Amino acid sequence: MAGKDDEYERKQSRDISRRRFLKGAGLTALSMANLSEAQAAKEASAAIRGPGATAVTLRVNNAVHNLQVEPCETLAETLRTQLGMTGTKVSCDRGTCSACTVWLDGATMCACMTLTVDVQDRAVTTIEGLAQDGKLHPVQEAFIEKDATMCGFCTPGMVMSCAALLARNSSPTLDDVREATCGNFCRCGTYPKVFAATLAAAGKGVK
Amino acid sequence: MKRFEWVDAKSAQEAVKLTDSSAADLMGGKNTSAGSVIKAGGIDLLDLLKERVLPATRLVNVRTIASLHKVSVDGESGDVTIGPLMTLSELAQHKTIQERYTALSDAAAHIATPNIRNAATIGGNLLQRPRCWYFRSSEFNCLKKGGNTCPAIHGENKYHAVFDNEICPIAHPSTTAVALVALGASLELTSKQGVREVVLEEFFVGPDKDVLRENVLSSGELISAIRLPNKSCKSAHIKMGEKDSFDWSTGDCAVAIQVKDITISSASIILGAAAPTPWRAKQAEDFLVGKTMSESTAHEAAKLALAKAKPLSQNEYKVAMLEVAIKRALLKTSGLNR
Ligand SMILES: Cc1cc2nc3c(=O)[nH]c(=O)nc-3n(C[C@H](O)[C@H](O)[C@H](O)COP(=O)(O)OP(=O)(O)OC[C@H]3O[C@@H](n4cnc5c(N)ncnc54)[C@H](O)[C@@H]3O)c2cc1C
Ligand code: FES
Ligand code: FES
User: Fold this and answer.
1) Residue B92, Cα to own-chain centre: how many angstroms?
2) B50 touching A, CB under 8 A?
3) Number of folded domains that form chain A
4) Helices B175-182 & B102-109, crossing angle to 10 degrees?
5) What is the residue-level pLDDT of chain B in tens, covering all 338 positions?
6) Residues A121, A140: one domain?
7) Which candidate from B14, B42, B115 shows the least CB-CB separation from A115?
8) Do the interacting molecules here have an ipTM over 0.90?
9) How many CB atoms lie within 10 A of CB B247?
C-alpha cells in the first residue's frame, strides 16, 4: 500500500511542479542564471543525479527504453507505470513475498527493492519476456496444464523463480524447487501444484 | 519514499568523499544538515526509506565498485579477505568459504529469500539496523531514535533480546555477524582520514555504550574489507525460525571448534537474535575446553550458555530455541549430528 501512496504522491508532485513551471514561465533571467550555476556545481562534483527525474536506459526483454526516472523510483514502479508491464505484481513492497520477481542478468531479484537508477547495464527480464516467438515458456505451459494457479497474484513471481531454476539446473529435485520458491508467498496455497508443474516442465527438457 | 539524490561512486576513495553519515547518524535525530549514506544492495536502506524513518538526502552507490566485490586468499598467511560487496548468495556458494569457514557459508545460505540473497551484500548485512517494530515504525520515537522511552521493554517483545536487555532490548539483526565473530573476523574501515582495522567483536557495541547505534562506525566511514584469519577449525551455524521456508532468526548460533586428538582445545560460541550484539557464551566455551564432544557435553554446554538469560514478558521461548541451536551446532562441527 505504501508503495501505491508513494506513486500517487510522486505523480502529484510531478503535476505540481509542472503547474509551478507553467505559472512561473515568466522567470527572471537572474533566477535562471542561479539555477544553471547550481547545476554546474553539481556536475563538477561527480555525477550527482536527482532528486528530480534523470535519464536512464533500460534493457527490458531485449528492448531498449530511454526513460526519465527519479532516483527514488523502484523498478517495479517503472515497469508497471512507465512501461505498462503490469505482469510484475507488487504485494508487500518490502522484499518479503517475491510477487515482484524479475531477473537481472538472469538472477532473480525483487523489483520492489531495486531502484531503477541502479539497474544500470543489467538486462531485465520480466514475465512478459518469457514467451518466445509467440510460444509460452515450458514453465508457463506446465502451470496451465497442472492448474498451478488460483487467484494468480503470486503466479508471475512463482513462474519467474521456477524458470530461473530450470535455466541453471535442467533436472531439479523436489527440494531444489522448494528452495527456489521458498521466498514466493502464495496465499491461495498452490505450492504442491507449482512444484509438480516445475518438475513436469523439467521433464520436457528445458535448457 | 521521499526523494533523494543518487551518485555512483567509482572507487572507495570517491565514496567516502561523497558520504557524510551513517544510517544511525541520521536516525538518531542528530546531524540534521547531513544526509548522504552509502548504499550497497539497498535492501535495508529501501525498507527504512519506505517506512520514512531514515531521512537520507543522497544515496552514494558503491554496488558497482569491482575492487570491493571479490574474495582473495593471502599467498603467505592464508588469511582470507572478503570484499564488502560480495552478495550473500555468492558467499553461500563460494568453495573456499564453504571449506574453511563453513559457519559463514551456512549462515549466508539461510538468510532471507533467494531474491534477497542475490541483492544483499555482506557489508550491508553487518550494518543493517535492528528489526524492532517500534524502532522501524515512524509512529514511535523510541530511545534508539533519540526519544525518551523504550516501548519494547514492557510492550510487544516476542522477538527481542534475552541478554543485556535492560536499556533497549533489540536483538542484533545480522546473521552473518554471528558466524564472523565466531570465526575471529576483523574489519578494515576506510574514511577521509585514512584506514583502520577493528576486531569485529569490538566493532559492535551495546545500548550501554550508545543506544543510538549498534557499532563504532564513524560518520561517512566505509567497510572496505572483512578479514578472516587462517585458523584450522571446524565451524557451523544453526538458525531457528518460525517457518521452514524462510524467516528471520528467532535464535541462532555459530560455533568454531579446534580439536587435538579427540580433546577440544578451543571453542568459540556466538549467539544471534539473543542480545543487542552478537553474544559470546563465555562460560560454555570455558566448559568445553579439555572435554571430548558428545551429546551430553553439548547439552551441558548449551544449558550453561543460557543460565544467565533474563527473558522479557513474551520471549521466554527463545531460551529453549537458543539451547537447541547451540547443541545442534556443536554436534554438527563434530559430525555427531543426526
Ligand atoms: C524478507 C527478509 C528476510 C531477511 N532475513 C534476514 C535474516 O534472517 N538474517 C539477516 O541477517 N538479515 C536478514 N534480512 C536483512 C537483509 O539480509 C539485509 O537487509 C541485507 O543484508 C542488507 O544488505 P544490503 O547490501 O542490501 O545493505 P544496504 O541496504 O545497501 O545497506 C545497509 C546499511 O549498511 C550501510 N552500508 C552498506 N554497505 C556498506 C559498506 N561497505 N560500508 C559502510 N556502510 C555500508 C548502508 O549505509 C546502510 O546503512 C532479511 C531481509 C528481508 C527483506
Ligand atoms: S512485492 Fe516485492 S517482494 Fe513483495
Ligand atoms: S494463486 Fe493466489 S496467491 Fe498464489
Assistant:
1) 15
2) yes
3) 2
4) 180
5) 999 999 999 999 999 999 999 999 999 876 567 799 999 999 999 999 999 999 999 999 999 999 999 999 999 999 999 999 999 999 999 999 999 999 999 999 999 999 999 999 999 999 999 999 999 999 999 999 999 999 999 999 999 999 999 999 999 999 999 999 999 999 999 999 999 999 999 999 999 999 999 999 999 999 999 999 998 899 999 999 998 888 999 999 999 999 999 999 999 999 999 999 999 999 999 999 999 999 999 999 999 999 999 999 999 999 999 999 999 999 999 888 76
6) no
7) B42
8) yes
9) 16
CATH number for the domain spanning A121: value is: 3.10.20.30
Residue B39 CA, closest ligand 1 atom number: 30
**Looking up cell 512501461, which residue turns up?**
A83
Asked if residue A122 belongs to a domain, the reply is yes
Whether A13 is in a domain gets the answer no
Is A37 inside a domain boundary? Answer: no
Q: How far apart are CA B37 and CA B7, in angstroms?
A: 10
Note if the bond before A51 is cis, omega within 30 degrees: yes
End residue of a domain, out of A66, A98, A126: A126
- Gyration radius from chain B CA atoms: 19
In order, the DSSP letters of A55-100 are: EEEEEETTEEEEEEE-TT-BHHHIIIIIS--TTS--SSSSSSS-TT
Ligand 1 contacts CB of residue B225 (under 6 A): no
Substitution site in A153, A159, A160 for ligand 3 pocket (most atoms within 8 Å of beta carbon): A153
Task: Let me know whether A77 and A138 are in one domain.
Answer: no
Give the residue numbers spanning the domain of A203.
Answer: 130-207
- A182 CB under 6 A from ligand 1? no
Domain contains A150: yes
Asked if residue A103 and residue A140 are part of one domain, the reply reads: no
Three-class DSSP category at B3: coil
The angle that helices A138-145 and A155-168 make with each other, rounded to 10 degrees, is: 130
Do A137 and A205 fall into the same domain? Answer: yes
Residue A139's CATH number = 1.10.150.120
The residue of B2, B6, B52, B62 whose CB has the most chain A CBs within 10 angstroms, and thus the best one to mutate to test that interface, is B6
